[in-house]
Amino acid sequence: MTDTEITDRFVIEVSQVGTVDHIVDLEADSVDRSPYAPRQDLPGEKLCDRSTRSPASEYIELQDYADWKGFDKTAFEGDAPDEVCSYCWTAVVEHAERGEQHECDDVDERIGTVGYRLRWKQKGRAREEWYDIVVRPETTIAELDALVCRFTTLGDLHLRMYGLEDEYIDSTLNIIPDHQFTEVRDPSYTNASEVTITDVAEQVTLWDGDRLSMVYDFGTPSHYYCILKEVYDAAELERFLEEREPIAATETAAIIDEKRP
Prior knowledge:
Elements: H1 3-9, E1 10-14, E2 22-25, E3 33-34, E4 37-41, E5 45-46, E6 58-60, H2 62-69, H3 86-104, H4 107-110, E7 114-122, E8 130-135, H5 141-152, E9 160-164, E10 175-176, H6 178-184, E11 190-191, H7 197-204, E12 211-216, E13 222-233, H8 234-243, E14 248-249, E15 253-259
Parallel strand pairs: 10-11
Antiparallel strand pairs: 1-2, 1-6, 2-5, 3-4, 7-8, 7-13, 8-15, 9-12, 12-13, 14-15
């Protein structure tokens, strides 16, 4: 991603709320609504949760904002200027660095041909217990869900939903198990058997170090997440699975390692 693409996508949100201005990702779906104008959607998504957004905000590209405030930043790099939220600034810098690394590794070309090793944990118990699930490109979220539920012993009494990073209840994927999809009958949700790991990877450029999340019970939620620990080319993946005796498996995925209390 070029500097121009970065500065076109990420803009400074100038508001009278708070002591610093924040950054908005214009390509993200809007998930914030102003408490002062609850029917009004605000553009994009703010990159931190440390202030309230206002419908009176202005949105300015970095170069214009730098000229206005009198500092010499022309790209999102280095430390944040005093006028801009450091959390938002760091998020953009990390996004740009990850994009550069993905280009070096030809990630876009490899997605759809690789498998992943996903280390699943429950939030708050990450050091005591984890499970490694290896998935092929064609593994559906339904198959992944079957293995996740095997070690979490989660029942079907409450809804569970898969998302990105630390989204949990605010999932942008809205993927729920097949039987719950049938029961809920809400078109905003996605049926787990209709989405593969490759579908998710292509949507968000899922790669080494990235995360997925799962929330169980929307009323009193339990939070689970996975870290993408390894990326395997097709031959590496098959060789790896041949050498390991899985703890549990579906047709295209397997639990291959664990730490239990």
